Amino acid sequence: MTRRTIGLSPVTTKSYGPAVFLQRADFVSLLHENEAALAAYNASPLVKHIVHRIRKCGETTEKYEHNRDFVAFVNLFADETQPLPANWQASGKNPTVFIDHTARRTTLIDPRLPPPAVERKRGHSAPPSRRQNLDKNGNLIDLASRTAEIAMLVEERLPDLAPKIHDPVVSTEFEEKLNHFYTSLYRSGYGKGPQKVKFQFSRSNLLQDAFSQILTVDSQSLRRAKLAISFDDEEGLDYGGPSRELFYLLSRELFHPYYGLFEYSAPDQYTVQISKYSNLVQHDLQWMELAGRVLGLALIHRCLIDTFFTRTFYKMLLELPITVHDLQEVDPEFGRSLLWLHENPTDLSLGMTFVVNEEENGQVIEKELLPNGAELNVTDDNKEEFISLMIKWRTERGIQRQSQALLRGVHQVPTLIFILDILLGIFHL
Hints:
This protein is an alpha+beta fold. The protein contains 18 helices and ten strands. The strands form four sheets. It has a four-stranded antiparallel beta sheet with strand order 1-2-3-4, with helices on one face. Strands 5-6 form a two-stranded parallel ribbon. Strands 7-8 form a two-stranded antiparallel ribbon. The longest helix is centred in the C-terminal third of the chain and has 17 residues, at 284-300.
């Protein structure tokens, strides 16, 4: 089997950390000269905020590496035609994980960032250089297209004026919640070891290997032990790189609608949810438990997964109540009808009762939302209960057992009690 690991480069090239690169005095100029990076910067308020925090507050990039947009933005500056710095290694693809053997760490950020420019002495007769603001066709760039550059300069040189032109979308409150969550995980000993759980996977048989290995480990070991991941016929020290790659690759298969456990929430959406036909998959409950364990492990080991879930799915994980507005994301028409009922007086002439029509074995049947629901009319006094029951029915129909299996898998890693404790702490920040 051909290894997918790019070997160490013998060429000695110095590595400059991404934070040092972003804090460079000429970074604004570099950003403006890189069209792809400038477009990514202007398209993402979150990337703007992260760059601002690193440049203004001197923060490191490690805490932001979970954000794929930020990682992709920084990597747009990397020169992939150059060899890796000494003692660096690149492993895998989509994403590529970079391994620094000297510092014994891994990162998703390419270390081949532009080095600091060498200062050249200018002769007394030479006029001071002036930057020519030209596009790739040689045309002068107008002021409107340079708003990002101007904003960053104001932040650096006129800090009192900066808040008036730059209002970060992501608040510090969110950062505090995130830091509180991971600090609590660390203090509680999740994933710290000293024991290790060793997994060896084949890239060509990833799902079956995960099914046969991850489900056999006891929950206590999953919570406390460190992970040691390796792939067949591939050498490597797991400084976190293989672990990150595993969760990324595994999530692309396990949660993909092709395998029948999950489905797209709508034809034009890429968010996924548990499929109402997942019961047709052999050993569906065990597969759902595996999905839960994978989510739990990715959470405590801070590994990226390549999946976007619906808001109702996240609330299901946290066992939080689902609202009409949440439902509108996955079923806009159904959500709008419930919202209309909430905002308008009930029309008793419609004869609405606590009953819903449901398809079962090809036939439409009536299902009571409450005992004797067929005899209970929906009125202004009880319509909120009716709406809550309808939301519960719509989000749980056909997937109750699968949802419970997935939750069981998640809570075998970080326990439900722990998650609720952390949430309570977060809500009081």
